[in-house]
Design brief:
The protein is mainly α and 265 residues long. It has eight helices and six strands, in the order E-H-E-E-H-H-E-H-E-H-H-H-H-E. The protein binds FE2/S2 (inorganic) cluster.
Amino acid sequence: MATGVRSPARARISARTLREDRWWLPPALTFIGLTAWVTYSTVRVFLQENYWVGEHHYLTPYYSPCFSDGCIPAASHFGQFLPDHPLIPYAALSLPLLLIFRLTCYYYRKAYYRAFWLSPPACAVAEPHGKYTGETRFPLIFQNIHRYTFYAAFVITLINTYDAILAFGGEDYSFGIGLGNLILVGNVIMLWFYTLSCHSCRHVTGGRLRNFSKHPIRYRWWTFVSRINTRHAQFAWITLGTLFVTDAYIMAVAAGWITDLRLIN
Ligand code: FES
């Protein structure tokens, strides 16, 4: 394992790269996309308003579970025990776990190592750093926490699913379906695909087995997880999109900028 060594040997050329294609485009797009999403999300979680549509029981995932004393009581499905403070997001228990889950995700590592740290920015393009210490030392050794945050993300996705189901019953608990329901359900489905296609989930379902023949159920799960695992990067981006759309739609309805398009009741 190369620890604390100079960059591995590369061709002895003075040019940074001999590539003539637009190798810089994917990292540039990744940089723009992630920066935009993180900026929007940071602003939203500290806004502390327009996160709940009481009439239709829509709760944005950015505020779920809503544990703060400042939460609208109807939006707090699991109690309120966090102090109400402008610098403490209403979902301050789940957001850090989800942030760490995404930050340490194998796909996002690749994305931000390339787009933000240029380490390296693309194949056959020299990186600006002189040393490579890998993920075996501080601080990147903490990336190994990913396998534990998977369980937290699993529970939080369950909570998001609960929110989406609850939203089919409005203020008077009568059944109804609106565009918000479809958006919430679509988001939750995509969150499940992202969470279950996690590499750690693949290890949980099929790892450490000597043979699959004695574990047919785990084998089936592992087969399913392996299949969707090949699309993990797509789910990573799709869920950033569905989270944004879900939150923006609920914010717009809650603020009264638009009315929910009702399909049933
Ligand atoms: S590897 Fe991406 S969420 Fe686990």
